Each structure stands twice: as C-alpha cells, then as structure tokens.
Amino acid sequence: MPKLHAIRQIPHLLLLALLAGVAFHSAHGAQGIAQYGKPKYADGFSHFDYVNPQAPRGGTLTLPNPDRRTSFDKFNPFTLRGVTAPGIAQLMFESLAVGSADEVSSAYGLIAEDIAVAPDKMSVVFWIRPEAKFSDGNAILAGDVKHSFDTLMSSLANPQFKTVYADVKQAVVISDRIIRFDFKNRNPELPVMVGTLPVFSRNWGKKPDGSITPFDKLTFEHPIASGPYVIESYKAGKTMIFKRNPNYWGDQGAKPLNVRVGFYNFDRVNYKLYSDDAVRLEAFKAGEFDALVEYRAKNWAKSYVGPRFNDGTLEKKAFLNHNGAGMQGFAMNVRRPIFQDPRVRQALGYALDFEWLNRQLFFEQYSRINSYFTNSDLSANFDGPRKPTEAELKLLKPLKAQYPKWVPDAVFDAMPAAPSTASPDSLRQNLRKARDLLAQAGWQYRDGALRNMQGEPFRFEMVEDGPFFLRVISSYVRNLEKLGIQVDIRTSDFALHQKRMDEYDFDMTTIRFPDSQSPGNELWDRFGSQAAKEKGSDNVIGVQSPVVDALVDAIVKAQTREELRAATRALDRVLWNSYYVIPQWYNPTHRIAYRKEMRYPEPPLYYTAESWILLNWWKEGAR
Predict the structure, then answer these.
(1) CATH assignment at residue 448
(2) Rounded mean pLDDT of 271-299?
(3) What does the DSSP assignment read for 486-536?
(4) Does residue 336 lie within any of the structural domains?
C-alpha cells in the first residue's frame, strides 16, 4: 500500500475506498449482505415481513428465568467466570448488523448504515450511522468497534471468541465512522459474522479518576452499549429490571429504523428468578409473569390446567418452527479414558430406550434425533437413508486415505438410525448388542460388575444442573446397570454446573447444541481440536480429530449452499458414526403459555421462543 503522503491529492472519499480495499461507489455499499446469493430485503425496505409494524408500545413484560440460572453475579456476558444477569446481551448490546429470522445467513445494517464486501472477499467495510450512540450519549465510533473486537479476542474475554473469530486478521479504523475487517482466509461467512459482533464503549468500566477496570474484572458496572434498554434496578437472585432508554438512538430519527420496526415493544422488561421449575410454573398460574416457555412434555400435557386456563385468563399454544433441531443428547467427555474407545460409546447408546420414554414420560410428543443437523437439509439423512453423494465422497475419500482411523468405514454406507426398541427390535436385543461391543473393547461382566482386563469396574458420573432430567436419567441408568455399569448421578445449581463444564470436569452430561440454519465458524468452537484444549469452549465432548477439523474447514469455506450441504452431510456422517453423543429427541414446535392480553405476530421461519417473545410480542392495552 502506498504511503499516505504520496497520495494526498486523491479525493477524500476515493482515498477511503482505496484504503478499505473495496471498489468506490458514491453510496458506499448496501444495507444488506448475504452469505450465499442476495439478501431477501432490498435497500430501503420498511420493515421485516414477520413483525407487526403497528404493534403498540408500552407496559411491562414480566418473564421468569430464561434458562436454569437461579441467580447472577455480573453484568458482563463476555467473560468466562460467573453467571450473567438475564436479558443483558439481548436488551443492551447491539452490533453493526443484524440478521433476519425469515432467511438463512443474511445481515442488514443496524449500527452500520452501509456494508461493502471487497471484490476479493478478503475484507468488509462498515459505515457507522452518524446518529448511532451509546447509552451515555457518546457517538459510536470506529475506535469503539475496534476496541470491542480486540477486547473479545484478548485473554480477558471468554476464549470461545478467539475460536469463532479465528479467521479475522484485524479490525482497522479508516476514519471516525468507517471500520474495516481484514480476513486471513476467504470465507463467505466472515462478513456476516463480524457484522454481528457485539459493540460496546471504550468507557465501560471507567472510574471517576479516569482509570479503567480490567475487562475480566467487570461485574456490576453497568454496560455502556447502544441497545434500547438500560438497567433500572436489580436484586441478585431475585429480580432484574430493564427500562427503555428514553434517548435510545434508534428511536430518535424522523424515520423509523427499518430493522427496529416492530421490535422491543415494552417500556420495561422485568425478570423474576425462581428457585426451580415447579415454583416457576405455580408462579405463572398465580399471575406473577406474562409468558412461559415449556420444555417438559409431561408438564405441557398435565400441568397447564386449572381455573385460569378454563376462564381464558391464561392461554397455551404450540407454535411451529422450521429450525434445524441440531443435536441434543447425553454427551461423553472423551478426554476420559473410559470413553475413548468408539465401541464403548456405541454400546452405551443401545441402553437408551427412547420409545419407552416417549410413551411413558413424553406423551408421544417427540421424534428421535438421527443427525447432528436434524430437521434440516444439511442432514446426511434428510431425504432418507442413503449412501454419500459424489460431492460428499469427494470430501470423504481423501480423508479416509490420509487419516484411516479417523474415518469410520460406516460413513460410506447409509446413515444408521439411532437404536430403537420398536418391534421387531427390543431393549433386550439392544443390550445384547451393547454387551458384545463392550466385550470387544475388553469389558467383561464378573464379580458383580462390568470390568476391564485390570479388574477395574466400569463406573462414571452423570452430572446435571438440576433435577429436570432425573426421571429420564434414572431410566437410562437402570438399563446401564443391567450391563454391570454403575453410574453416580450428581446434580448442582447452574453456576457450579457451568463451572464444571467450562473446566471439562465431568464424565457424562446432557448437551444441547444451538440451532443454526447456516453453520460455520461456531463449529470450530464446538468440534475443533484447538477448542478442545481451551477451557470454556463449546467443545465439551473433547473432539480432537484431523478429519473433523478438515470438514469444518470445508464448511466455513463453502462458496455455495450446495457446497455447504455436501460438507455438513460429510461431517454429520463422521460425527454420527463416531458415537460421541447418545442422541435424544426433538419437537418442531415451541410450547408457550401466556396471559390473554399478550399479542404476537405470525412467527418467523427460524426463531427461539424466548427471543421471539422479548423482541416481537406486545401487550394489548399497554400504556
């Protein structure tokens, strides 16, 4: 690149374009970009199709714990230690761009008014809106965006950010309101991904004397971010209350910001934290909060009844979604010697009797998970059991030649279904198969237990963050005991459980990998070899496979949806036939109960229930 003094005479805007590494256009770029093809919404669109642009604003939305956390000890959602207060990330932090819920992998300018991807795809430039401001009234500048990126990539933040953004070389400040991200590799997901990077002020944690509290030491210092809400009050372990920022920059212009029309319709959001699920449900029936998402089939079938449901004060409905169901199951920590033989892991899967659970505990509400990309065209068995396509074989065959022990032979056959006890199969037959596999791996039943050649019993610990799954686990453990395997069940509160997960201090636990319609860099954190060595990553299983790394690389570098599909299906085959997880079940609906005055638009294609309520619902008659 030429030195600045040599090109002083170049007109200012053209200079900025050259420095940004993109072609010059008088309109800078576009509001929307897409990973594949074109974004659904053209520049100048008025609002997303799935919102109600006339939704009234006002009132208070009161919600319970959004997950199993029962308390919190910080407001910083980006550090490893501690438990963050509910609502902080969604209500207070914004990004340069935001995705839409009715298409796959697109992004539209939020803090940024324009986005331009370089012709060589090795960088992306964002132009920051002049009206965009932080909650303290200061303008959002490119320096704040760079500070956010550099901080999240440092040792002060959760290590997962370094994994997810590993292909981002640097953030470069071009001018006060222009920021460029340079990439190490050509990856079509990166422009969308850096666009959704959370942005916060350089002044967050600044003390009266001008010194700054280190990022990893921030606890109850109020975040300085640009979202529509600020903290009103809180009581750790009890409540977290947000109020609408009266000076929120997105509400100040003469024309509504299109990506915010129909969003954040409540003046206040109040989280009440309850000690357990039973207490929370009874509190809902008593009218203590407005909506509740139910994940337990038995509760949905049996407990959402009573006078308030009969008189219409409370309502319940299952809302269809098109989310990829992903993977949920009992995950084994393969860092433990006991789980390192794939025959052992496969054997343990035969002991889970899904059909009995679905019949006796789930009221036939679930379907079995048979893929890491269940309910998606990215799944290797989406269109039925079949052998790999030519596109999949093009990825798998060279990997088999290079790393034969890391590519199971079974990947070249039709994807096997999860073990079933439906006729003509049975639990007894499955346990016999399990016993044979265990014997092949050197485990034999003698002296009242399943033992290895050294006489050590097969014994492990199952850890959970509460009693939510105890009936399921107890059924599974009884079947394992028939094989001579002893399981110690340990439950703990959310904070202690999370600490154990961050440090990989467990044998087996229940995992739920987040849904994604267009998976990419997050897979490095979930399955990458490097992530398995870094505390706090999503790779709790401990997968360290050169084949998995190569297939994740193929996924993130896919240039078309077809290439992405081939790569995810190849990865699906390898993971599935490596038996890292004992797959459980899924439901293509969100079960939501709510007060009668709550209103909602038609649901989008892809959404989580809690976020949809928070972002797009409103209350009739609210003021």
Answers:
(1) 3.10.105.10
(2) 94
(3) EEEEEE--HHHHHHHHHTT--SEEEEEPPP-SS--THHHHHH-HHHHTSTT
(4) yes
- Encoded tokens for 538: 């999503």
The parent domain of residue 316 ranges over 274-322+588-619
Would you say 444 and 437 are in contact if contact means Cβ atoms under 8 Å apart? no
φ/ψ bin of 210: left (φ > 0), alpha (ψ from -120 to 50), beta (otherwise): left
User: Burial level of 120, CB count in 10 A (0-12/13-18/19+)?
Assistant: exposed
User: For 325-363, how does the pLDDT look when each residue is reduced to its tens digit (9 = 90+)?
Assistant: 889 999 999 999 999 999 999 999 999 999 999 999 999
- End-to-end CA, the chain: 57
Return the pLDDT at 253. Answer: 80
Cis peptide preceding 424, ω within 30 of 0:
yes
C-alpha to C-alpha distance for 315 and 186, rounded to whole angstroms: 49
Dist. CA 165–CA 187, nearest whole Å: 11
pLDDT, tens only, 565-590? 999 999 999 999 999 999 999 998 99
Query: Looking at the domain assignment, is residue 40 inside a domain?
Result: no
How far is the C-alpha of 480 from the C-alpha of 459, rounded, in Å? 10
Q: Are residues 291 and 234 in the same domain?
A: no
Q: Which residues, in sequence order, are bridge partners of residue 332? A: 508
pTM of the predicted protein model: 0.82
